[in-house]
Every structure is written in structure tokens, then in C-alpha cells.
Amino acid sequence: MLANQNTHLDRTVIIGTRGSELALWQAHFVKDSLANIGVTAELKIIKTQGDRILNLSLDKLEGKGFFTKELEEELIAGTIDIAVHSHKDLPTEHPPGLIIAAVSEREDPSEYLIILKDCVDVKQKLSVKFGGTVGTSSNRRKAQLRALRPDLEMDDLRGNVPTRIGKLRSESYDAIMLAKAGVVRLGIDLSEFHVEELTPTEFVPAPAQGALAIQIRETNTDLFEILQKLHHADVAEALAVERTVLKSFGGGCHMPLGCYCRKNDGEYQVFTSKADTEHDLPDRMYISASSTVGLVDKILAKFDKERKLASKVFISRELPASSYFRRVLEKHDVEIEARSLIRTVPVMTILNAYILQDVDWVFFTSKNAVEYFFQLKPQFSHPVKFGVMGSGSEDMLRRNGHFADYVGESGDTAEVGAEFAKLANGRHVLFPGAENPMRSIHKALSPETKIVDLPVYETVLEESAEGTDADILVFTSPSNVEAYFNDNLLDNNQRVIAIGKSTGSKLEEMNITYTLPFSPDEVGLAEAVFGL
């Protein structure tokens, strides 16, 4: 935020706003922020096309800016001084004579999937029952939801935030999707529902989601100077990347496009999801750079339909037809060679009940550990929490009827261990897993934590691992790396992707260069393959 300046305004500023609860919250937020710097303001409520026409989905409304046009017209006419918008509603082209003078802090741009409790199925990804109906009018949300859950039905949902929640309450839908920012700003209690929070790196939000735009006339220079006290330049920089991507694709609110930019440890990280229509499987892209200069051009180049992709991808595990990764590759006619180079076999057939006594946490570092542990039909006499490493383990835990209380989303076991230690230090933690485990998570736990290793399976390398002529080789575990390179060398033109840092460490031991996906799941894997 820029430093305070000594500019004063000796008149009341008129703020134009829509009349919905969320729009009024946003306008009052700006009014209060102005009051804090000595500027008096009052509100003028203006009805927009998007407020008047509620029986059509957004992509069927005429033109652009159906939540902003009328506010902008009054701003140009001089009947208001400021228009407050949800930044994501603004068209990428401003009317002549208007500018965005300030951008607010950004609320968390995550999405909420809000589900009726009797429509929850823990065994399904995202927890909506199989074949459930989700209410949303956003083509972006529809496309990404279908990518993760092709079985779900989509039904249009219009209205302000409380109205949409009311429609869910009346059981018009099994679930609805809303931006977290609106729910948080209105302080809405969702305890009667089951809520799945989808982070912006796993479910890409609309460009500029979560931020407010304060729009004024370009000639109003005294007001512009005052509004710099409310401006967050770092947020504006990230939003500029997102909105430039949107503009470059010629998109508006109806385009199935999500783009999210953030600065993390000095690096700009950009996540993009783009489909041609709401019914198409979106392409996902992740890119990072030290500067925003040229960043949008790099993103557009990755989405160029003329770009030559890999002709064949090898992955060291089986891929069912329903696999997201398989569906993305098949969409682009990429040949898939999916086979494991190892076998896993159980090492225990009966689970002694005493092992589960006094256990507070059960932590799984792989989906194999989850599968073999629950084959033993464990019976807990008291509430137990579950921790998992990665979305694959989380999905397997769901299939066995349990939610994860902690999900380690980073591929770095040291980071996951440090996070998990904050929850589990001093408690009794059971680690079902392979024989001779790496114990990466264990190292972060305090000495007073009771740690019990429970070998439930062992890994057996295949006697001979056949090589592949694939352009890209994806290794899913250190054991698969070992099995493959015991018998094969890497071709100079072949590129390697590692799922998880432990797999990467095994490749480093062999002096093999590799790429690490942003997230160790099938979405991150798709991003990595198409990012090469």
C-alpha cells in the first residue's frame, strides 16, 4: 500500500453500488475506509442488468458488464464519484474516461462447495453423492467440476449469496458452489451444511476473484490521489496478470477460464484452467517466473493449439479409464503407457486390537498404506484422526469411508512433517506403511510423541523392467525409479517427471534431471506434462 498523502476533499463523495447484501458490504467497506482517512461518503444504490434479469444464465445475457454497466454510466454522467465493483465482474476493457483508481486487499479466492448433509458421500471425491446436482451458473466452475467429477449434473443458479444458499436449503440442489470471499464477508453460518473448501491452486478461480475495484473518472485527479491510500499495488500487480490472460483469450464472465497469480518466496506462480465450452475437459497450466515481464506471453504460448506436445507418455502405475490424467492425455491424442514396475503384497493378515489402543492419529504416506490397512478391518473403540500425504492417499481414505483431518499437499515431506507436527506433537501416532519405511514424517515429531510403525505391505521389484520409447517418463515412487534404471538407460531426448520429493531424491542419486509438479496429484501431473 502506498504511503499516506496530505490530500483533502471538502465535499461528500457519492459511492455507486448494486443493492445486494454483498455489494452493500463492499460499498460500506470502501465508505468506512474513506472515513478512516477523513473523507465523508454516502451510498447510491443502482440496479444493473444482472440484478433485473434473474431467469437467464450469465452467458445468455446480452453484451458484457451486466453487473457493472449501469454503475459506469452514472459515473460517466457525474451522478456518482466512485463505483465499487467485485473486480472479477469488470470487463477487461474500461469505458473511455474511467479508470481503476484503487484495488483492495484480496480476500481468500478459494471456492466453497456447499453440500446438503444428506447428500454427502465421503467415498466420492469432493463428497457430493454420485450423480448429484450442483447449482452454479459459472461455465468456469462447471468445466472444472466435470473434470473432477464427470458424473455430476450441473444446474444454473442465479441470485445473491443468501438467495443461492436459500435455494440449496429448499433442496432445489444437492450442492451449490460459491466464492469463499462472499460468504466470509457476509459472515454467513454454514454449519447446517457440509462444506468442502477448494483452494485456488486446485480449483482455479475467476481472474481477480476476491478483490474489489474502486473505479472513478479519469479527470478526477484529486480523488485519485486520495484513493492511493486505499490502493494495494501488490494485489493490483497479480490481478493485472490474471486479467491480461483473460483479455488475451478474448474472454468475459462466460468463458470457462480460471486464472490465479500469486507471489510466493519471490516467485510469481500462475495457475490457469481453460476450456472451450463448459462441457469440455479444461487444460491446466502452471508456470512460475521471477518477474511478471513476459509472463502472460509464456502462458499463451503454452496454450497455443499449434504447439507440439509429447506423442507418448510413460507412467509407472496403472491408470483406470476414469483417471483425470488419462482423460487429459487422450484429449490431446497423446499415447499412454501405464504400468507399474513393482508389486505390493500384504505382510499382515490379522490386526491385533491392542495396536489401536490409545491411538490419536493414523498417518498414511501412500494410498497403498491406506488400502492394505483397511483390508485388515481395523476397529477403533474411540475417535481417531487421520492424516494423509497427498490427494491420492486422501481419495483412497475416502473410498474406505473416512475424511482426512489433515492432508499434506506439498510434495516436500519435510514441509508436511512440520505442518503435521503442529497437530500431533505429544500424541500417539500410528504409521501404517511399507516394511522399512523412510520415516520422513517421523523426523519432525517431538520426542514425547509416541510413534508406532505398522508394516502392512512390502514392495517387490519386478525381475526385469522393460524400457520405453516414450517422450516423457513419469515416476511415481523411488522403488519404480530403482526398478526401471536397474535395467534401462535414459535416451537423450527423454524427459522425466517425479511425483514427490522422495522420488526426485532417488533420481538425483542417479544424476537424472527431472521436473517436479507443483502438486503431487493427477492435476499437478497434467500441468507438468503440458508445461514441458
UniProtKB/TrEMBL annotation:
Swiss-Prot/TrEMBL cofactor(s): dipyrromethane
S-(dipyrrolylmethanemethyl)cysteine PTM positions: 253
Record GO terms (molecular function): hydroxymethylbilane synthase activity
Annotated metabolic or biological route of this protein: Porphyrin-containing compound metabolism; protoporphyrin-IX biosynthesis; coproporphyrinogen-III from 5-aminolevulinate: step 2/4
Occurrences of domain Tetrapyrrole biosynthesis uroporphyrinogen III synthase (ranges): 326-514
Listed CDD domains: HemD (cd06578)
Reactions listed under catalytic activity: 4 porphobilinogen + H2O = hydroxymethylbilane + 4 NH4(+)
Cofactor binding, note field: Binds 1 dipyrromethane group covalently.
Keywords annotated in UniProt: Porphyrin biosynthesis, Transferase
Domain of life: Bacteria
Enzyme Commission number(s) from the entry: 2.5.1.61
Pfam families noted in UniProt: HEM4, Porphobil_deam
Residues of the Porphobilinogen deaminase N-terminal domain: 14-223
Other comments on record: The porphobilinogen subunits are added to the dipyrromethane group.
The protein's role, per its UniProt record: Tetrapolymerization of the monopyrrole PBG into the hydroxymethylbilane pre-uroporphyrinogen in several discrete steps.
The family this protein is said to belong to: Belongs to the HMBS family.
Known partners and oligomeric status: Monomer.
Protein's recorded name: Porphobilinogen deaminase
Organism field: Mucilaginibacter terrae
